[in-house]
# Entry
Amino acid sequence: MKNIIIFGAPGSGKGTYSDEIVKKYGMGHISTGDVLRAEIKGGTELGKIAKGYIDNGQLIPDELMIDILAKTYDAIPKGKGVIFDGFPRTIDQAEALKVMLKDRGDDMGMMIELVVGEDVLMERLLKRAVEQGRADDNEETIKKRFEVYRTQTAPLAAWFEKEGIRHIVEWTGNKETTLDKVFAVIENA
Ligand code: AMP
# Structure
């Protein structure tokens, strides 16, 4: 199984679709957001640093994030491929991921970009705020995260295009049919 980079704006469904892909194909899963939230919960030094950025809707600095990613990757089973969920979010992170995987005799596999309108994203994130109580799911922070996505992360799509591994899946208005499109990309890539 090829590695998968799942890419998209906050609320686009990266975590949800990653869980479905893991269920179907038994791959490894790295969610950098989950790794950081676990560090915060555990009260670690890293968690204390990360909290300041996350609560403000900002990205954790690249150098720190790349180091966390490599440690997480090296610690998980990789036989069935790995889904990278929430990483990379900057061009520097993408370049670092490419090199890290190459050094380990592996590659990025495919990138799946989830495209969803901003009105739907906002609605989902506000709903998640009520259901899951994530500290960064409030309207002000969500707007900042959209801005960070537009300026720092969205330009990466063109980087993946150049790498020849970008696949776009548009939200159909329905989870099941969108998921079918995600599976079709995986089966045909
Ligand atoms: P997520 O759960 O993927 O939405 O991530 C929640 C927050 O964690 C983001 O808004 C960032 O503050 C931080 N974060 C997660 N992944 C990264 C990353 N690859 N680079 C920088 N910050 C990240």
Observations:
- Residues 10, 32-33, 36, 53-54, 57-60, 65, 86-87, 89, 93, 136, 145 surround adenosine monophosphate (CB under 6 Å).
- The mean pLDDT is 96.
- The longest helix spans residues 118-132.
- The beta strands are 4-8, 28-31, 82-85, 110-115, 166-170.
